[in-house]
Amino acid sequence: MIQSGTTRRTLGLGAAMTLAAGLAQAAPDAASYPALMQGNGCTSCHSISEKIVGPAFQSVAQKYAGDKDAVASLMQSIQNGSRGKWGRIPMPPHANLSQAELKELATWVMTQRP
C-alpha cells in the first residue's frame, strides 16, 4: 500500500505521542515528590521505585511495613543520618529540618509501598 507523506507523518506523530504518553505514565514526575523532598536533595540519592545511591522509597516503605514506629524511626534516620542499614554508603544528616518537616517526609515515604 502506498501512503502519502502526510499519512506517514500523521502515523509517525501518533506513534511518538503514544510512546511519550506511556513513558510519562511509567516514570514518576517531579510533581509526585513533596517540595520539601526536592528542596533538600532527597531525590539526588533516592527515587520512588529504583535504587540510586540510597534505597528506593518503595523499598523503605516495604521494609518498615507493619512497624508501628516506622515514621518515628524514619524521622530519626532523616534527621541524624544513617549508616549500614542499606549498604556501605551512609545517608547524611538533615539536622536543619523541623519535626513537622521530618514527619511530613517520613509519612510520605511510608505511603510509597509497591
TrEMBL record:
Pfam families: Cytochrom_C
Keyword annotations from UniProtKB, A to Z: Electron transport, Heme, Iron, Metal-binding, Signal, Transport
Flavoprotein among keywords: no
Binding-site positions, heme c: 42, 46, 91
Source organism, top-level taxon: Bacteria
Signal sequence coordinates: 1-26
Limits of the Cytochrome c domain: 28-113
GO MF term list: electron transfer activity; heme binding; iron ion binding
Post-translational modification: Binds 1 heme c group covalently per subunit.
Transmembrane regions listed in the UniProt entry: none
Protein name as it appears in the record: C-type cytochrome
Source organism of the structure: Malikia spinosa
